[in-house]
Amino acid sequence: MKTAKIGLLGFGNVGGGTYKILTQNKKIIEKRTGVTPEVIKILKRSKNKKRLMDADSSLLTEDPDDIIQNPEVDIVVEMIGGIEPATSFMVQAMKAGKHVVSANKAAIAANYRLLTNTAKEYNVEFLYEASVAGGIPVLSSLTGPLEANNFVEIMGILNGTTNYILTKMTDENLPYDEVLKEAQEKGFAEADPTADVEGIDAANKLSILIALAFDKHIHPDSIPTVGITGISSDDIKAAEESGKKIKLIGKASLRDGMVEYMVAPTLLDKNHPLAGVSNEFNAVYVTGDMVGELMFYGRGAGPLPTGSAICGDIINIMKNRF
Amino acid sequence: MKTAKIGLLGFGNVGGGTYKILTQNKKIIEKRTGVTPEVIKILKRSKNKKRLMDADSSLLTEDPDDIIQNPEVDIVVEMIGGIEPATSFMVQAMKAGKHVVSANKAAIAANYRLLTNTAKEYNVEFLYEASVAGGIPVLSSLTGPLEANNFVEIMGILNGTTNYILTKMTDENLPYDEVLKEAQEKGFAEADPTADVEGIDAANKLSILIALAFDKHIHPDSIPTVGITGISSDDIKAAEESGKKIKLIGKASLRDGMVEYMVAPTLLDKNHPLAGVSNEFNAVYVTGDMVGELMFYGRGAGPLPTGSAICGDIINIMKNRF
What we know:
With 322 residues, chain A is of the alpha/beta class. Chain A is built from 13 helices and eleven strands.
């Protein structure tokens, strides 16, 4: 059986989840692809972080070049997050002839054209299903089975932390500060929650959705973005009284040939499919000119859902390039 | 630009929808694939049926061999429905070296191994996204971005007619017979509704989902199937009073290494994502060992949603084989 040699850049939550899937589900992956996935090197920076699955110390390195410039590596999986050095690592890996899989919405949203053009120039695959809505296969659907459509609108609950906070504020009638604190204690929100609660994370994901659906790169800084820090219990009550729910929505619509976009708390009718998406779940509501309305729903974060999407991209490359 | 020459077997509702998409969205398809889709022949049997889009009479034929045995045709799209002669047509087309796209759940569920094995033997593509849940890209997701998962359970609202009837019975408190009659008048139910209301259509789709998720072909006749004809207004009321909804569910679960399956009216908790799927909409709820729970929601029937899935398959072939 052929072997795909994989290097993991990053070994935190998502790296651990990805390694666990490639190890634990190796047999089913081999059966479905005819190729063996073999992780040959892992970039690990923090020495003592907990993760889902540990790896043999012979696989670990602290030098990114042991992966990016390693002639043995076929596929580089970038899971370190942040715009730099992640973008440079991905570009260098592509230039060294490696396929790249990434979960890094910030880097892709900021440098979409650079990354996709470099992949094209060096004839390597660049896949990033995990960067939007975690385990939900929405990017693959937009660029695969839905491609006969002109897309009309994309609306999404793209951030699990804020959806969890809004759900608790609504269901348990609690104020924002209290729910945020609880979410931080449970690990659903970061110690510094700014990127989530200010809508920045959602804007990164919306930027990627716009690029794929409308073939237009809008830098996330150019997306009008309002987070949920201004939402009060009174707002939530008022919404409920008028039969609506408040959700943090990233939305892009085609109007007269122009794409309009924004991230903002939005009143949705209680019967709208997105209104029923609760807690940490994500969902993307897509309207195509032919297929009509679709919704994709599932877990937008977490080591295993995100790892599932990453491994789906690895499988895609194994099927098409090995 | 390269050209993919397409023959359409069937020119009813779905055939008309598919032809409309290939014509109206030709530019976007060319841009996304680098290949021109060209319909060169259409099998039309009923002379005067209304459809979404008419075709030049030079394209029409009443002889299936003008498509199946036509050396010019690259891709045969089978949309005539029923088990035979559709299965024979597909097998003959594959043996003549043509890729086959089909929307025909009855033929695929009955002859899954014959059709997939013939495609493999003759090294042609055989794709059938439209056969389950119409425009919703669930089959492509199971066999693509979700392939790193062992599937644990698949549950679906797979038939729009019965979901429409149950929704009306629930929301408007009407008896089965009255709602069925109204659905027939509106075109949401066939004059002979047996295949829908007895669960046969859902069993066909469940058979295909089982084949893809669990690599096991269960003939639909072997799936325990109960339809909705026995559901009374009292049943619906009793369900509502206990905080539940009745939905016709096709379900397959892995338990101790065995796949269990059935189609039956099922009580769902009101908070289950499938409980919110109303009217003629379909949805498939998938649980994978890594990704957790996902739901795919959208239009399960209709010329354009079904045509969207068919054209997605055509695009897949154009990208991989041209």
